[in-house]
Every structure is written in structure tokens, then in C-alpha cells.
What we know:
globular
Amino acid sequence: MTHSATTEPRRARRAAPDGGRRAPRRRRRWGRIVLLSLVVLLLALGGTGYWLYSGLNGNIDGVDLDKALGSDRPEKLPTSGQNLLVLGSDSRAGDNASLGTGKVAGARSDTALVVHIPEGRKQAVAVSIPRDTLVTRPECEKSDGSALPEAERVMFNSVYSQAGPACVVKTVEKMSGVRMDHYMEIDFAGFKGLVDAIGGVPVTVEEPIKDPASGLDLSAGTHTLDGTESLAFVRTRHGVGDGSDLGRIGLQQEFLIALLSEVKKQDLLGSPTKTYKIADSLTAALTTDSELASLTSLADFARSMNGVDPATMETIMLPVAYDKADPNRVVAAEPQATELWKAVRSDSEIPESAKKSPATGG
């Protein structure tokens, strides 16, 4: 793989007042673009770089949501706000089979985040949808072209395996009334590759976590997790809270902030090799909507969010209550869930009352 480089003409440079050399303004600007490109895809489990090696474009799979969903969708925001549905898929096939993720047929949406970037692009909000939430799945078209009829009280994470990503988008839009402008998905192998590429992510746990199911065994304190350990950290459920999916959502949100902070600290511009390694491993594991299915489109989208500071991102769990018929499942809690989605639709501040969940997972 080859690429061309632009050589800057030789010219005299004025010394900075302190006698040092000024960092070129262009370098600083492109540095921000590299970081923001990573942040956009990483908002729960993705990532990329802005080194436009043409071969990376072919790594990204695209889903044509407009073609798959048609016109029966919520209206777009009247503002310039943006909404992304970000999924972490738990397929056990291919490279994922060796990651200690268990032996389960098919693939499911192991992690789901609705990321809202408000008008003005100042602060992002990420809403986690628990995988055990019972939802009404709308009628969808399966990958073989056959119709999957509407069904009530199905587990949210089963929709992916039953009808694919477009049906997950349709389900989220129906339950929230929020139109998803974009879709991003990354599988286990890509998540592991990102963490290993940046050299690990430090996390702090207040109490020991030991979960034989995920393989996670951490003492209280701070640990730098490699890719395999990070995967176990975000997937563990038996070692925290009541052992349900709700407990691990807190770990996922904590890890997301730690991962974003670690990416922000690293000098990706000063290490093209590391940036390319990140981009190569993640684009191969990345699926997006067709509008974002290229490095240039991803970078353009990142550039539009130049004002977003990942350190201010708010993470919220969709308010849920334990289902009365099956305490191992949860349902959207009302009126909190309605208030939450209304705030997202109107691009307004989410009220504190809409953040309180009757079911906490311990």
C-alpha cells in the first residue's frame, strides 16, 4: 500500500517568544481531527484515524438504512442535532471465537447506546439500552427478504439476531420516537484491537470483581487492562451488583470514559504507525450506515463536531423497572422513559427526574 505526502516548501520560521519553535497551526488542527475521528466512533465502542490510506475504505461495511426502513420513520430533528445508534455485537464467529465470549449461536446487540449530539455540538449524551429490556419489535424484513411480523415482549438484544441491524434501528426509533441519523457497530475483535493498539486502558474498581463466566478477576484498585481484559470488564455481569445486565452497564459507561480519556492523552499525530494500526483493526470490524461508510465521510462528520469535549459526555441508562411477570427482564419505566426521549427529540436538557431508574441492578 502506498500513499503520497505533501512536502512543505522551505521557509524561515519565526521563533516563539520563549525561544522555542511554534507548533504549526495546521498540525494542531489536524491533530484535533484525528482525535475527534476516534471519539466519534468510540462513543461506546468504535474508533478510526484520519490517515487516509485508500485501502482502509474497503474495510468498512455499510448498511443502507433509507432503503431498508423506507419512509415510516420519525421526522428528522428541526435543529442540527444528530443521533447515532451505536451497537457492540457479540457474534462468536470468526476472530471473536477465541476471545472467551462463550458459545452462543448467532449474534446479538451486546451493547446499545443512543448517542445524542445537540445543536451547537458542545455536549454529547449517551443513553444505554439494557439488553434484557422487553420491547415491541416492529415488522421488519429479514436478510433473506422474508417478513418478520411485529411481536410484543421480545428481548431487545434478540432483534439483531432475528432481523439484523436495520431492524434494531427501526425498533429503537419506534420505542423512542427519535430518528437515528447514523448507525455504527463494532464487534468483539475490533474492540479488543482498539485497546491493544493504544496500549491498554486504566480503570479503578472500588471492590474486587471476580466473574468466572467472563474470566475477569480484579482486586480493588487501579489496573491497566489489555484488550482481552477490557472485553471481560465490559461484559462481566455476575461479578457486580445483582448479576443482571443492569450492573454491567455502569462498568461499560465507566470504561467508555476511561477509554476516551486515554485516547485523548495519546499523541496520535506523533505516531502515524499507531494511528494506522488503530484504523486498520477497527475499520475491519466496523459497520456503519452507508452515508458514513468511508474514512472521508467519517472524518467530515468528526469535523462537524469540533466543539464536542468527550470529558463532558453524559452517560445515562434508559430508566427501567423489573417486569412484573418475569423479574429477570426489565421494561421501560414510565413516565421517566417518555420524558427522556422527549428531551432528546426536542434537543433540550434532560430533566433529573428522567434519569432515575427503579431497577438499578444493585
